[in-house]
Design a protein that fits this description.
By secondary structure, the chain is of the alpha/beta class. The chain has helices at 11-23, 30-43, 54-64, 81-88, 133-143, 194-203, 212-216, 238-269, 298-307, 333-338, 353-364, and strands at 47-51, 71-74, 92-95, 118-124, 146-150, 158-159, 162-163, 170-174, 187-191, 275-276, 284-285, 291-295, 342-345. 36% of the residues lie in helices and 14% in strands. A seven-stranded mixed β-sheet has the order 1-9-8-5-4-2-3, sandwiched between helices. A three-stranded antiparallel β-sheet has the order 7-6-11, with no helix packed on it. The chain has a three-stranded antiparallel β-sheet with strand order 10-12-13, with helices on one face. The longest helix has 32 residues, at 238-269.
Protein backbone atom coordinates (compact mmCIF):
# COMPACT_ATOMS: atom_id res chain seq x y z
CA UNK A 1 0.00 0.00 0.00
CA UNK A 2 1.09 3.55 -0.68
CA UNK A 3 0.74 5.12 2.78
CA UNK A 4 -1.15 8.31 3.54
CA UNK A 5 1.71 9.92 5.47
CA UNK A 6 5.36 9.05 6.01
CA UNK A 7 8.18 10.97 7.71
CA UNK A 8 11.19 11.99 5.63
CA UNK A 9 14.38 10.79 7.33
CA UNK A 10 17.91 10.12 6.09
CA UNK A 11 21.40 9.71 7.52
CA UNK A 12 21.30 13.19 9.06
CA UNK A 13 18.65 12.16 11.58
CA UNK A 14 20.52 8.96 12.44
CA UNK A 15 23.75 10.90 12.94
CA UNK A 16 22.00 13.48 15.12
CA UNK A 17 20.73 10.76 17.47
CA UNK A 18 24.30 9.76 18.29
CA UNK A 19 24.90 12.99 20.20
CA UNK A 20 22.43 12.58 23.09
CA UNK A 21 23.31 8.90 23.41
CA UNK A 22 27.04 9.69 23.49
CA UNK A 23 26.56 12.44 26.07
CA UNK A 24 24.47 10.23 28.32
CA UNK A 25 21.91 13.02 28.65
CA UNK A 26 18.76 11.87 26.90
CA UNK A 27 16.15 13.58 29.09
CA UNK A 28 15.22 17.26 29.13
CA UNK A 29 18.59 18.81 28.38
CA UNK A 30 20.79 20.77 25.99
CA UNK A 31 19.28 19.47 22.75
CA UNK A 32 15.80 20.43 23.93
CA UNK A 33 17.05 23.92 24.81
CA UNK A 34 18.74 24.30 21.42
CA UNK A 35 15.64 23.07 19.59
CA UNK A 36 13.45 25.52 21.53
CA UNK A 37 15.71 28.46 20.73
CA UNK A 38 15.99 27.65 17.02
CA UNK A 39 12.27 26.92 16.73
CA UNK A 40 11.36 30.27 18.31
CA UNK A 41 13.70 32.01 15.88
CA UNK A 42 12.18 30.13 12.94
CA UNK A 43 8.61 31.05 13.92
CA UNK A 44 9.58 34.65 14.72
CA UNK A 45 8.58 34.71 18.36
CA UNK A 46 10.40 35.19 21.67
CA UNK A 47 9.81 31.88 23.43
CA UNK A 48 9.23 28.23 22.55
CA UNK A 49 8.58 25.55 25.17
CA UNK A 50 9.10 21.90 24.24
CA UNK A 51 6.54 19.36 25.43
CA UNK A 52 5.93 15.66 24.83
CA UNK A 53 2.99 16.00 22.40
CA UNK A 54 0.80 18.45 20.57
CA UNK A 55 -2.01 17.42 22.92
CA UNK A 56 0.10 18.42 25.94
CA UNK A 57 0.85 21.73 24.21
CA UNK A 58 -2.86 22.45 23.85
CA UNK A 59 -3.57 21.36 27.42
CA UNK A 60 -0.93 23.65 28.93
CA UNK A 61 -1.63 26.55 26.56
CA UNK A 62 -5.28 26.61 27.52
CA UNK A 63 -4.38 26.37 31.19
CA UNK A 64 -2.17 29.47 31.08
CA UNK A 65 -4.82 31.25 29.00
CA UNK A 66 -7.15 30.78 32.00
CA UNK A 67 -10.03 29.23 30.09
CA UNK A 68 -11.23 27.22 33.13
CA UNK A 69 -14.86 27.77 33.99
CA UNK A 70 -15.62 29.60 30.78
CA UNK A 71 -16.37 28.93 27.14
CA UNK A 72 -13.97 28.42 24.25
CA UNK A 73 -15.16 28.90 20.67
CA UNK A 74 -13.71 26.15 18.53
CA UNK A 75 -13.97 24.14 15.33
CA UNK A 76 -15.50 20.68 14.92
CA UNK A 77 -13.23 19.73 12.00
CA UNK A 78 -10.07 18.81 13.85
CA UNK A 79 -8.38 15.96 15.67
CA UNK A 80 -10.05 15.50 19.04
CA UNK A 81 -6.97 16.74 20.94
CA UNK A 82 -8.02 20.33 20.17
CA UNK A 83 -11.33 19.98 21.94
CA UNK A 84 -10.29 17.47 24.59
CA UNK A 85 -7.85 20.15 25.81
CA UNK A 86 -10.82 22.44 26.45
CA UNK A 87 -12.44 19.74 28.59
CA UNK A 88 -9.15 19.00 30.37
CA UNK A 89 -9.29 22.61 31.57
CA UNK A 90 -12.89 22.44 32.82
CA UNK A 91 -14.12 24.74 30.08
CA UNK A 92 -17.00 24.39 27.63
CA UNK A 93 -16.38 23.93 23.90
CA UNK A 94 -18.66 26.09 21.77
CA UNK A 95 -18.57 24.78 18.23
CA UNK A 96 -18.61 27.19 15.30
CA UNK A 97 -19.27 26.08 11.75
CA UNK A 98 -16.53 25.94 9.13
CA UNK A 99 -15.88 27.39 5.69
CA UNK A 100 -17.01 24.97 3.00
CA UNK A 101 -13.90 25.55 0.88
CA UNK A 102 -11.04 25.58 3.43
CA UNK A 103 -12.66 23.59 6.27
CA UNK A 104 -11.23 26.21 8.63
CA UNK A 105 -13.37 27.83 11.31
CA UNK A 106 -15.63 30.45 9.69
CA UNK A 107 -14.66 33.79 11.21
CA UNK A 108 -18.11 35.15 10.38
CA UNK A 109 -19.71 32.51 12.62
CA UNK A 110 -17.66 33.37 15.71
CA UNK A 111 -19.09 36.67 16.94
CA UNK A 112 -22.72 35.47 17.30
CA UNK A 113 -21.49 32.73 19.67
CA UNK A 114 -19.72 35.09 22.08
CA UNK A 115 -21.27 35.40 25.54
CA UNK A 116 -20.21 36.83 28.89
CA UNK A 117 -18.63 33.42 29.60
CA UNK A 118 -16.42 33.31 26.49
CA UNK A 119 -12.73 33.33 27.38
CA UNK A 120 -10.96 32.29 24.21
CA UNK A 121 -11.07 31.28 20.57
CA UNK A 122 -9.05 28.31 19.34
CA UNK A 123 -8.24 28.21 15.64
CA UNK A 124 -6.93 25.20 13.72
CA UNK A 125 -5.03 25.93 10.52
CA UNK A 126 -6.58 22.92 8.83
CA UNK A 127 -4.40 21.05 6.37
CA UNK A 128 -1.71 23.72 6.72
CA UNK A 129 -3.91 26.51 5.31
CA UNK A 130 -4.09 29.51 7.67
CA UNK A 131 -7.39 30.74 9.06
CA UNK A 132 -8.57 34.31 8.39
CA UNK A 133 -6.47 35.64 11.26
CA UNK A 134 -7.00 39.40 10.80
CA UNK A 135 -10.74 38.98 11.18
CA UNK A 136 -10.38 36.57 14.09
CA UNK A 137 -7.86 38.76 15.94
CA UNK A 138 -10.12 41.80 15.48
CA UNK A 139 -13.05 39.93 17.02
CA UNK A 140 -10.86 38.79 19.90
CA UNK A 141 -9.64 42.34 20.55
CA UNK A 142 -13.19 43.69 20.49
CA UNK A 143 -14.31 41.26 23.21
CA UNK A 144 -11.00 40.93 25.10
CA UNK A 145 -10.61 37.24 24.23
CA UNK A 146 -7.48 35.12 23.96
CA UNK A 147 -6.61 33.43 20.66
CA UNK A 148 -4.97 30.01 20.74
CA UNK A 149 -3.47 28.80 17.46
CA UNK A 150 -3.48 25.06 16.85
CA UNK A 151 -0.65 24.74 14.35
CA UNK A 152 -0.47 20.94 14.31
CA UNK A 153 -0.98 21.01 10.53
CA UNK A 154 0.76 24.27 9.69
CA UNK A 155 4.39 24.07 10.80
CA UNK A 156 6.26 26.27 8.34
CA UNK A 157 3.12 27.81 6.87
CA UNK A 158 2.32 31.50 6.95
CA UNK A 159 -0.42 34.12 6.99
CA UNK A 160 0.31 37.37 5.13
CA UNK A 161 4.03 36.76 5.47
CA UNK A 162 3.97 35.85 9.19
CA UNK A 163 4.56 32.28 10.32
CA UNK A 164 1.57 30.59 11.82
CA UNK A 165 2.24 30.29 15.52
CA UNK A 166 3.32 33.93 15.82
CA UNK A 167 -0.06 35.63 15.43
CA UNK A 168 -2.33 34.61 18.32
CA UNK A 169 -1.70 34.99 22.05
CA UNK A 170 -0.22 31.50 22.22
CA UNK A 171 0.28 28.66 19.74
CA UNK A 172 0.72 24.90 19.77
CA UNK A 173 2.60 22.57 17.44
CA UNK A 174 2.70 18.79 17.05
CA UNK A 175 5.76 16.80 16.01
CA UNK A 176 3.92 13.48 15.74
CA UNK A 177 5.30 10.98 13.24
CA UNK A 178 2.89 12.05 10.47
CA UNK A 179 3.49 15.78 10.79
CA UNK A 180 5.59 17.99 8.48
CA UNK A 181 8.25 18.26 11.18
CA UNK A 182 8.30 14.71 12.51
CA UNK A 183 10.04 13.69 15.74
CA UNK A 184 8.00 10.53 16.31
CA UNK A 185 6.29 12.38 19.13
CA UNK A 186 6.60 15.79 20.73
CA UNK A 187 5.19 19.29 20.61
CA UNK A 188 5.97 22.96 21.13
CA UNK A 189 4.25 25.99 22.62
CA UNK A 190 5.18 29.43 21.26
CA UNK A 191 4.51 32.67 23.12
CA UNK A 192 5.92 36.18 23.43
CA UNK A 193 5.09 36.75 27.10
CA UNK A 194 8.09 36.01 29.37
CA UNK A 195 5.91 35.33 32.43
CA UNK A 196 3.87 32.77 30.52
CA UNK A 197 7.06 31.17 29.22
CA UNK A 198 8.33 30.77 32.79
CA UNK A 199 5.03 29.31 33.99
CA UNK A 200 4.82 26.89 31.07
CA UNK A 201 8.31 25.58 31.81
CA UNK A 202 7.25 24.78 35.35
CA UNK A 203 3.88 23.30 34.36
CA UNK A 204 5.46 20.87 31.88
CA UNK A 205 7.65 19.52 34.71
CA UNK A 206 5.14 18.91 37.52
CA UNK A 207 5.19 22.55 38.61
CA UNK A 208 8.86 22.35 39.58
CA UNK A 209 10.47 25.78 39.31
CA UNK A 210 13.89 24.56 38.14
CA UNK A 211 14.23 21.64 35.76
CA UNK A 212 16.90 18.96 36.00
CA UNK A 213 19.09 20.38 33.25
CA UNK A 214 19.18 23.84 34.84
CA UNK A 215 20.02 22.28 38.21
CA UNK A 216 22.87 20.30 36.62
CA UNK A 217 24.61 23.12 34.75
CA UNK A 218 26.62 24.47 37.69
CA UNK A 219 29.81 23.14 39.17
CA UNK A 220 27.80 21.10 41.68
CA UNK A 221 24.32 19.63 41.23
CA UNK A 222 21.76 21.87 42.87
CA UNK A 223 19.12 19.61 44.33
CA UNK A 224 16.73 22.24 45.70
CA UNK A 225 13.65 23.53 43.87
CA UNK A 226 10.24 24.87 44.75
CA UNK A 227 6.79 23.81 43.48
CA UNK A 228 4.40 26.74 43.05
CA UNK A 229 1.45 24.87 41.52
CA UNK A 230 0.41 21.41 40.44
CA UNK A 231 1.93 20.69 37.05
CA UNK A 232 2.18 17.77 34.63
CA UNK A 233 4.75 15.29 33.31
CA UNK A 234 4.77 16.78 29.85
CA UNK A 235 8.29 17.89 28.95
CA UNK A 236 10.16 17.14 25.73
CA UNK A 237 13.41 15.18 25.90
CA UNK A 238 16.67 15.30 23.96
CA UNK A 239 16.01 12.31 21.67
CA UNK A 240 13.07 13.82 19.74
CA UNK A 241 14.71 17.24 20.09
CA UNK A 242 17.79 15.95 18.24
CA UNK A 243 15.53 14.74 15.43
CA UNK A 244 13.64 18.02 15.55
CA UNK A 245 16.76 20.10 14.98
CA UNK A 246 17.51 18.23 11.76
CA UNK A 247 13.90 18.33 10.62
CA UNK A 248 13.65 22.05 11.35
CA UNK A 249 16.70 22.77 9.18
CA UNK A 250 15.01 20.88 6.32
CA UNK A 251 11.46 22.11 6.91
CA UNK A 252 11.15 24.77 4.21
CA UNK A 253 12.68 22.40 1.66
CA UNK A 254 10.35 19.58 2.71
CA UNK A 255 7.31 21.86 2.55
CA UNK A 256 8.32 23.10 -0.89
CA UNK A 257 8.40 19.49 -2.07
CA UNK A 258 4.89 19.08 -0.68
CA UNK A 259 3.87 22.17 -2.64
CA UNK A 260 5.27 20.62 -5.84
CA UNK A 261 3.25 17.43 -5.29
CA UNK A 262 0.10 19.44 -4.60
CA UNK A 263 0.73 21.33 -7.83
CA UNK A 264 0.87 18.05 -9.76
CA UNK A 265 -2.35 16.87 -8.13
CA UNK A 266 -4.14 20.16 -8.78
CA UNK A 267 -3.14 20.23 -12.44
CA UNK A 268 -4.16 16.61 -13.01
CA UNK A 269 -7.54 16.99 -11.27
CA UNK A 270 -8.47 20.41 -12.67
CA UNK A 271 -10.95 19.06 -15.22
CA UNK A 272 -12.65 16.48 -12.99
CA UNK A 273 -16.17 17.78 -12.44
CA UNK A 274 -16.84 15.25 -9.68
CA UNK A 275 -13.88 16.28 -7.50
CA UNK A 276 -13.29 19.55 -5.62
CA UNK A 277 -9.67 20.40 -4.92
CA UNK A 278 -8.41 22.16 -1.75
CA UNK A 279 -8.29 25.96 -1.78
CA UNK A 280 -5.30 28.10 -0.87
CA UNK A 281 -6.54 31.63 -0.08
CA UNK A 282 -4.44 34.59 -1.17
CA UNK A 283 -3.57 35.42 2.46
CA UNK A 284 -1.94 32.08 3.23
CA UNK A 285 1.09 30.13 2.16
CA UNK A 286 0.13 26.62 3.15
CA UNK A 287 2.40 24.09 4.81
CA UNK A 288 0.42 21.46 2.85
CA UNK A 289 0.13 18.96 5.67
CA UNK A 290 -2.58 17.07 3.85
CA UNK A 291 -4.39 17.04 0.52
CA UNK A 292 -8.13 16.81 1.07
CA UNK A 293 -10.56 16.62 -1.83
CA UNK A 294 -14.34 16.51 -1.81
CA UNK A 295 -16.18 13.72 -3.62
CA UNK A 296 -19.90 12.91 -3.51
CA UNK A 297 -19.32 9.15 -3.72
CA UNK A 298 -16.61 9.32 -1.06
CA UNK A 299 -17.02 5.89 0.51
CA UNK A 300 -17.06 4.13 -2.87
CA UNK A 301 -13.92 6.09 -3.82
CA UNK A 302 -12.13 5.06 -0.61
CA UNK A 303 -12.79 1.38 -1.34
CA UNK A 304 -11.73 1.82 -4.97
CA UNK A 305 -8.43 3.37 -3.92
CA UNK A 306 -7.82 0.65 -1.35
CA UNK A 307 -8.31 -1.94 -4.08
CA UNK A 308 -5.64 -0.06 -6.04
CA UNK A 309 -3.24 -0.27 -3.11
CA UNK A 310 -3.52 3.41 -2.17
CA UNK A 311 -4.28 4.53 1.37
CA UNK A 312 -6.79 7.33 1.94
CA UNK A 313 -8.29 8.87 5.05
CA UNK A 314 -11.05 11.10 6.40
CA UNK A 315 -9.88 14.16 8.33
CA UNK A 316 -12.09 14.55 10.31
CA UNK A 317 -15.36 13.24 11.63
CA UNK A 318 -16.92 16.36 13.19
CA UNK A 319 -16.04 16.37 16.87
CA UNK A 320 -19.45 17.65 17.98
CA UNK A 321 -20.99 14.40 16.67
CA UNK A 322 -18.92 12.18 18.99
CA UNK A 323 -20.76 10.80 22.01
CA UNK A 324 -18.49 12.57 24.49
CA UNK A 325 -19.43 15.95 22.96
CA UNK A 326 -23.17 15.34 22.94
CA UNK A 327 -23.75 17.87 25.77
CA UNK A 328 -22.21 20.57 23.56
CA UNK A 329 -23.94 19.70 20.29
CA UNK A 330 -25.29 22.45 18.09
CA UNK A 331 -26.44 22.22 14.49
CA UNK A 332 -23.56 22.99 12.12
CA UNK A 333 -24.90 22.62 8.58
CA UNK A 334 -21.61 22.99 6.69
CA UNK A 335 -19.56 20.67 8.88
CA UNK A 336 -22.30 18.05 9.03
CA UNK A 337 -22.66 18.04 5.26
CA UNK A 338 -19.09 18.49 4.09
CA UNK A 339 -17.45 15.79 6.20
CA UNK A 340 -19.38 13.16 4.23
CA UNK A 341 -17.52 14.22 1.08
CA UNK A 342 -13.95 14.74 2.28
CA UNK A 343 -11.17 12.28 1.59
CA UNK A 344 -7.42 12.67 2.13
CA UNK A 345 -4.98 11.50 -0.53
CA UNK A 346 -1.35 10.51 0.14
CA UNK A 347 0.93 13.50 0.62
CA UNK A 348 4.45 13.20 1.96
CA UNK A 349 7.86 14.41 0.84
CA UNK A 350 9.30 11.07 -0.25
CA UNK A 351 6.50 10.12 -2.64
CA UNK A 352 8.23 9.04 -5.85
CA UNK A 353 7.23 10.34 -9.26
CA UNK A 354 5.97 6.88 -10.22
CA UNK A 355 3.82 6.75 -7.07
CA UNK A 356 2.45 10.23 -7.73
CA UNK A 357 1.59 9.33 -11.31
CA UNK A 358 -0.04 6.09 -10.17
CA UNK A 359 -2.17 7.96 -7.62
CA UNK A 360 -3.17 10.51 -10.24
CA UNK A 361 -3.98 7.83 -12.81
CA UNK A 362 -6.08 5.92 -10.29
CA UNK A 363 -8.04 9.02 -9.25
CA UNK A 364 -8.68 10.14 -12.83
CA UNK A 365 -9.92 6.67 -13.79
CA UNK A 366 -12.44 6.47 -10.96
CA UNK A 367 -15.79 5.97 -12.66
CA UNK A 368 -17.97 6.89 -9.70
Amino acid sequence: MIPLFKPSYDEQELEALKQPFASGWIGLGPKTKEFEEKFAQFIGIKHAVGVNSGTAALHLAMKVMDVAGGEVITTPITFVSTNHAILYNDAIPVFADVQADTLNIDADKIEPLITSKTNAIVVVHYGGYACDMDKIMAIAAKYNLKVIEDCAHSCGGSYKGRRTGSIGDIACFSFHAVKNLACGEGGMITVNDAALDKRLRALRWLGITKDTWNRAKGEAYSWFYNVDEVGYKAHLNDIPAALGLVQLAKLDKLNNRRRDIVGMYNKAFADLDWLIRPVEKDYTKSAFHNYVVKIKKRDKFIQYMADKGISTGVHYYPNHLYSVYKPYYRKLPIAESIWQKIVTLPLFTDLTLSEINYIIESVVNFSG
